[in-house]
Fold each of these.
Amino acid sequence: MRSILLSSVVASVLIFPAAAQSNPPVPTSRPNQPAATTTAQATQAGVWRASKLKGLNVYNQQNEKLGEINELLVDKSGKVQGAIVGVGGFLGMGEQDIKVEMSKLRFVDEPPRTASNTTGSPNRPVDRAASTDRRWYPDHAVLNATKEQLKAMPQFKY
């Protein structure tokens, strides 16, 4: 009697975890909601992720790198008021932050053309597999200014 009771307890202990692991099938789509709605909302044209704009290289119209976007300034209503661009310096030493109005920046989706770089951006290497991600951020920004003009601007203090 004891052995029968003991074997039934051991069997239930071994079988119960296996039975608990079975999951019901996941529905593939919700009724009354088209499946393409979520994808269409996620890939709206002209919408960029703010997290992808930080670190974006800024060039002038002669394709000289001026600096990179270090921060975005947003007012209480959520409107972006300006970008903080780090200019000058080398490896983070001697860099000066300046505020640039967003209307002065022009965002470009293709890599800048320079003598040393004709195939991709120094900011983001060309990756054909991730080409669908490109619609979430531009390749770089263009600012109509020279390095000297930006260095002469007042430094932005946080």
Amino acid sequence: MHATPPDPSPHRIRRRNVLRAAASLALAGVVGVPRGSAAADAAFPATPANALGPFYPARKPADSDADLTQIAGHAGRATGTILYVTGRVLDTRGMPLAGTELELWQANAFGRYHHPSDTGASGPLDPAFQGYGRLAADAEGRYRIKTIKPPPYSGRTPHIHFIVANGATRLTTQMFFEGEAGNERDGLYRHLSRDDRRASTGRFVERAPGMESDAVVTAWDIVLRA
């Protein structure tokens, strides 16, 4: 039996190099690679910044927990489809950022914000909807929010506003929803690049045990660039 001579084809050599690079990137997501390396920068694209918007709360509600569907001391539940937003806060190496602080705010089921500049023309207020929440990611960078799915309103596709802060790093952004007909017409969404759209969009996943049977769940990882 004759040994097969090595294949000197430049095409095959290039292909092997590409496969090695891909394997390195896959491992980077599992074990991490040194900060600042090209592989680290490519492994987890950073979530892009987006507009703060005009309706950041002028006054924070007394109840500012991660369940926006109920207000302490008030009977009843917010109008609308219950939405859980779950995910992790990571750095660009894929490492969890424990204790990261998150703020979120959004329109109620009628398309109105708890803000003095948003008037009744947008729809009624919902006295059972908190409208704003604040929480911290756990030791593994995970977070979970219970809210209602926001509707589209004049000029905007459904979205939730976020401020995410870890040490000196602070990101103001917006989360969009996969499959929404209004995404391509939204003035902020349509100016994002394809990669930034992907990084800004939550995907719908199966409910976890204990979640309401009529709830929907969105998974969205937030990636911070130091």
Amino acid sequence: MRRALIVIPVLALLLVGGAFAFFMLRGGEAPPPPALPPADGPVVVEGDVTEYEVAPGKESFVGYRVREEFASFGVKDAVGRTGDVEGRADVTDRIDSADFEADLTTLASDDGRRDNALRDRAIETARFPTARFRLTAPVAVGRATAEGDLTLHGKTRPIRVRLESQMSDDGVEVVGSARIDFADFGIEPPSVAGFVTVEDQGTLEFLLRLVPAR
């Protein structure tokens, strides 16, 4: 009887924890990684425009992609993005410099409960509301690997970004991604009662539409 009184609450706790984890983080299908739209052909840039800025509106975004593992349910990708991005780049026949900042407090995924959890856990957006990337070496327009410094969770670390960019009729379009090791930025991967765990690394991904700076 004593053993039963101990086991039953434990089982109940496990069932409730598992159900909570499943319903909190299950979400829907993850969107695909960002990609450049098809190019219309050679673009002739008129004038001496070299300074570009993130276009106003929500056409640009910065976000994350992480792998969540559900005990007995398999794995899925969780994706969160924010359109609150600003910054500038100097572009000639290459990207000479770039500096961008994103507001992490407006990150949104397919489940608002996940987004709320990130306020005080993992990237802790309540304490560290912004992320910043600064290019540290010029990079060619096209497909290339860019080097820069990422400031995330209060720490700045060098990263390498897989980058694709192209000139458009009204500016520059850039997409990219980079693997992020959470330990490098002091981020503790979240876990829910052991039923849902997150890998110790994720992917930073972004799509930026740049227009001539005002």
Amino acid sequence: MEIGRVIKPPACRPAVKARSPKEFGRIGVLMGGLSSEREISLKSGQAVYKSLKQAGFDVIAIDIRTENKKENIRLLHNSRIDCAFLALHGHFGEDGVIQEILEGMNLAYTGSGVDASRLAMDKIASRKIFSAKGLNVPRYMQVDKAAYAAKIDSHNFNFPLVVKPATHGSSIGLSIVEKKENIKKAINMAFVFDERIIIEEYIPGREVTVGVLEEEPLPVIEILPKKRFFDYEAKYSKGMTEYIVPAHLEASVARAVQHDALAAHKLLGCYGCSRVDMILDKTNSAFILEVNTIPGLTKTSLLPKAASVLRIDFIQLCIKLIKMAYAKK
């Protein structure tokens, strides 16, 4: 068996020449926010800030503590930054809101633009696009909080199934439901985080993820949680999950997974980087779960792990994202 393909490192965009750190101007690392992913965002932001600082960049850490537009414009203006490095996960960071503010201020920023961020954050909207273009997604139903009871009571579900908010990441509010008597509890928990939720088929198989950097797919990573499901605890508790980088896949399967990940990235109009989470079923068909436009950015997060296989270390990854921010602007 030929083990997973390792592609050549993507070349930097020629539009931006190599510079010394000071020539990039002042970089503001935006982190925190008020979403359910605040603590994860702070870890990403601090990792980026420390790496840029050690590399000699003029960098400032900016903790976003309000979603008020005027207050954030004032904060960013007073920080006198030239480029925003976005490490904001969840609402306000990945849903196009902060991107719209930065564009209004004519500031360069890392990652995807307004429309792509909104689409990727909304699992329902993005799945409709994927399905229309022939990519596999799990069978699912959308449930709105306003009138869900009658719809749920009359539906004959096959178990196990997955219940999750439509616009959250990090497995927050997600439940794997194995018995009918537990479904309402799972639904109520998901509704704590969102007005719309998804109830989808549970696909047994191998969980994989593919980072995209500079419009090229990175090596596939396989995720092996030590508990049955890759939930919030498995993601963020030390020692709870093993990661195989690159995944032990036949070369043809690895290429197909990378192809679908890049297709999902492009269909949403993502830019710079993303991470596409997928399930491989028993036939090695890939089902797209979601696209993360601001993936975790600690040195041990999945996108940096995949980049390191191509000998792109953490600071090089950060610099690539900054270069692309200026190229986009």
